[in-house]
Amino acid sequence: MRQLAFFVASLLAFARAHSCPEGDVLNTQDQCLHLETTTKNWEDAESYCVGHGGHLTSVQNQYDNNAVQALAETHNCKYFWIGGLCNTGACTWSDGAPFKYTFWDQGAPDSDPCISVYTGTAEWNTVPCSNSECFICETPQAVMTDCADWYNAGYNTSGLYEITLNGISYKVYCNMDNGGGWTVFQRRVDGSEPFWNRTWSEYRNGFNTDSMSMSTNFWLGLEILHQLTVKDSDVTLRIEMRGDRTPGSTSANEYWYNEYTKFQVGDESTKYQLINMYVDWLNNKGNASTGWYDMTYSIGAPFSTVDKINDPQTNCVTEYKMGGWWLRNCALSSLNGDYTIADPNNGYGMFWIVDGLDNIIHPRESTMMIRPTQQ
After folding, report:
1. pTM for the full model?
2. Domain that holds residue 31
3. Fibrinogen C-terminal domain spans which residues (predicted)?
4. With 80 as the cut, is the pLDDT of residue 294 above it?
């Protein structure tokens, strides 16, 4: 039983890196295996699977056989249908796959046509197709394009997931809180990572992405951010900040957040321009943008780094250390700026303006994340 539990855990971990819904596992044919515990005869079970875009599963090797056994074991199904049919000893799979691998019980197959698996041993027998049993469908993988796709598929635990954009797979960190489905593209937790002096190439491709979590500093990358913000008609940006490091601040443990819709970043030919973002001042979601001074000032601004300054005021990067941001004559926010507070009374380095120019904070932590706007 311990060995079976380990096998189930490894199957679920493998599926997690691929695009199978919660509770399903991936077989060696890149199909998602789904167990139905509502018993049906073989023909109705096959019809059910076809209606969900697949077939009763074929079994191509020992790994696949172990996979279906483990799946049935976790749901207490004693017998279950797979997609095999036999006629006078000649057997076929309902999905059209070649019938090469077998795992017959002693004396099988016999004159009955439909293949049933005994969960206890994973051995196959042919039985009357009218029997009512659990069954396992195989369906194609879904293509997950962001964390919202994973959340909508039933995954509600924050962590690392794999998404596919334009045929390329990426590892991302998904925040499944606050309605779930947030793809995190910036996280700062302390001053161990400077951020402001990273190069154009590093901001384009991302940095510290091998160790993404809510306790590490990372930037996902401008190129993937561009793709994520143009694949949907409307994208929401959520910014969260915790603690003000400004000396003498009365908000040392405060929490701020705000949501902006219509968020979009251009491609590299536009210098990853901040094309748009919108906040509804009459129905503002958050407490971080209560004045007119916030990130929306940067709409239309190109991105700047230490080695590619696209701001006419070069000292915004070189002196004020606001590199790694959308700058146009500096900015009214800079969450990738230098963590060190050089001048607490001005917007230098890492800062945010909460309520007009009289309330400049230097957050202890920040998170920037996006998801398709919910209607």
Report:
1. 0.74
2. 2-140
3. 138-374
4. yes
